[in-house]
Amino acid sequence: MYLNGVCPSDLKVVARSSAGAGEGVACKSAWEAFGFPQYCCSGGYSNPATCTPSPYFRLFKNACPRAYSYAFDDATSTFTCSSADYLITFCPSTTSQKSTGQNPDATGRQHSSDDGGGPMLILGDDFSGAVPAVARAAALAVTSLATIALRGHCEPPYP
């Protein structure tokens, strides 16, 4: 299932073209959209008894039935992140190489000590015909969601 097509308007990330037309490019989490602690299972909602699925749960669960759709979705979910050190590459350049090593990096570049060891985003120069602004907006929205999920805790939503 393609989430952008069924994403409710209050969670939709819209990229505007120069002509002013808007296109849905991503779907936010309820936490990122509203910032309420019950959507993040934090504070008084930090245990399975008080943190229950949001009204948006079914949308994400229908799209990815075995993926976690909220913090305590253990009964039907089958995978988790093994660490918080991931590299996410959107639209890699045509000179990118795959790595089969322990820490794959599609760009082949070595991580420096100032990387901080956290998730990284690399945008290539080949957007394969996509409108660059739309591709960048989608990449940033997905990265925001991935960062929230990988950190294992919540931060205030971005303005």
UniProtKB/TrEMBL annotation:
Residues 95-117 are annotated as: Disordered. This is Uncharacterized protein. The lineage of its organism: Eukaryota, Viridiplantae, Streptophyta, Embryophyta, Tracheophyta. SUPFAM superfamilies: Osmotin, thaumatin-like protein. It comes from Ensete ventricosum (Abyssinian banana). It comes from the Eukaryota. Residues 95-105 have a biased composition (Polar residues).
